[in-house]
From TrEMBL:
Chief location category: membrane
Source organism per UniProt: Humibacillus xanthopallidus
Protein name: Putative PurR-regulated permease PerM
Membrane topology field: Multi-pass membrane protein
Membrane-crossing residue ranges in chain numbering: 31-48, 54-72, 84-107, 164-188, 230-249, 255-281, 288-304, 324-352
Length: 412
């Protein structure tokens, strides 16, 4: 009877030398781990490529359910949660229907007129560029750069004119996608407590507290972000549309909606992208002063929003540095497209909040502590100055108070 085969003892080595033993079992184990990682990556890519639309619908439904959570939670104290969810969803649907009935025809007419006027706007822009910069551009040369000439235009026209079957298929696809979105939104919202308990059972007991904190932060950050962005988009779009209507600018409703949505849901550079199109339309129109007036309005409104409106609405929602927001959006868009870009900012805020809660912090060295103390002293002086101005000028108390809040928010 023989015992297990053992490796021969290693020869003695001089002090300080490192001996590396080659073990074939480790090679096989490492190979299987790498094969498993590659297989999981291939499976994830296949799921994202073929099921991207379903994943997008699930993400949007989850966001909508989280955004409705404050209203659903309040109503669920007086009625069943499913009924509360239906009431909130019906309220949103009624608002959309009323908006479409009130402005749908006007919006459609403005969009159609704007599309027809695009060639004229392009010709005016080309003429202005030629006169200002001494260029020799033509509309035909610009079109050839983007479409490949007449043949490219023919291909584009052929693709657009897909026929009646293509239109019907697109309409049916949009209808079924909407139905799927509403069903998932309802189930995510109505069964939110049950879903939370089910996921919590999959986490070890020692980690369930961390899971609970992460879930609550996700609701606060994501729901607050979506709700705050929608409110700010409504305010920005409404005021922009009203200003365009007052100065007699064409397409005021369509351009106002564009300004509100893009300015609020595209971080960092969204404001500049949103205002560029209306300003360009105004400058290229029959009354160029309208573009300049709209640009001045946008600059003034942006300052007022940053100081007074946004701190009140989104102070507790998402507090992320603009550079971090922009990087998160780029990274999310590269990984998951539109859905990734949309959820990137609240996810980044959630990760930063968890890091701030559970990361270990150390005392600052004397040099850095002195810099921090100087910064706090400067901020305290600014607060005292604002309070003194508010006391001396009661009419400006609201504005100075909001400015103080904005300074406090930026200093965090």
């Amino acid at each position: 009877m023989t015992g297990p085969v053992t490796e021969p003892p290693l020869p003695p080595t001089p002090s300080g030398d490192v001996v590396v033993r080659f073990d074939r079992r480790n090679v096989w184990r490492t190979g299987w781990v790498l094969a498993g990682v590659v297989a999981l990556a291939a499976l994830a890519r296949w799921v994202i490529d073929d099921g991207g639309s379903v994943i997008f619908t699930l993400i949007m439904s989850m966001l909508a359910a989280i955004a409705m959570e404050p209203a659903v939670a309040r109503l669920s104290h007086r009625m069943r949660r499913g009924v509360a969810t239906i009431i909130v969803m019906l309220g949103v649907l009624v608002f959309i229907i009323v908006f479409l009935l009130a402005f749908g025809r006007l919006l459609g007419e403005q969009l159609a007129t704007f599309v027809k006027s695009v060639p004229d706007i392009v010709e005016r822009a080309v003429a202005w560029a030629n006169e200002t910069f001494g260029a020799s551009l033509t509309v035909q040369s610009i079109l050839e750069q983007f479409t490949g000439g007449t043949a490219g235009l023919a291909r584009v026209a052929g693709n657009l004119a897909g026929g009646l079957i293509g239109v019907i298929a697109a309409v049916l696809g949009a209808f079924f996608s909407s139905i799927t979105f509403f069903f998932f939104t309802f189930y995510f919202s109505a069964d939110n407590p049950r879903l939370r308990m089910w996921v919590a059972r999959l986490v070890p007991p020692k980690q369930q507290e961390v899971f609970g904190v992460a879930w609550d932060l996700a609701v606060i950050k994501t729901g607050g972000y979506v709700s705050a962005r929608l409110v700010l988009a409504a305010i920005c779009g409404g005021l922009s549309s009203l200003f365009m209507l007052i100065i007699g600018m064409d397409y005021w409703l369509a351009l106002g909606i564009w300004t509100g949505l893009v300015a609020q849901f595209v971080p960092t550079i969204g404001t500049y992208i949103a205002i560029a199109l209306p300003v360009l339309v105004g400058l290229m129109g029959p009354e160029p002063w309208q573009g300049l007036a709209l640009l001045a309005f946008a600059l003034v409104y942006q300052q007022i929003e940053n100081v007074t409106i946004e701190p009140r609405i989104s102070a507790e929602a998402v507090d992320v540095h603009p550079a971090v927001s922009f990087a998160a959006v780029m990274f999310g868009a590269a990984l998951f497209g539109v859905a990734g870009a949309f959820v990137a900012v609240p996810v980044a805020a959630l990760m930063l909040s968890l890091f701030g809660i559970y990361s270990r912090k150390y005392d600052l060295v004397p040099e850095l502590a002195a810099l921090q103390a100087a910064k706090e002293h400067t901020k305290e002086q600014k607060k005292r100055t604002h309070r003194a101005k508010a006391a001396a000028d009661p009419a400006g108390q609201t504005t100075t108070g909001d400015s103080t809040g904005q300074a406090s928010t930026e200093g965090v």
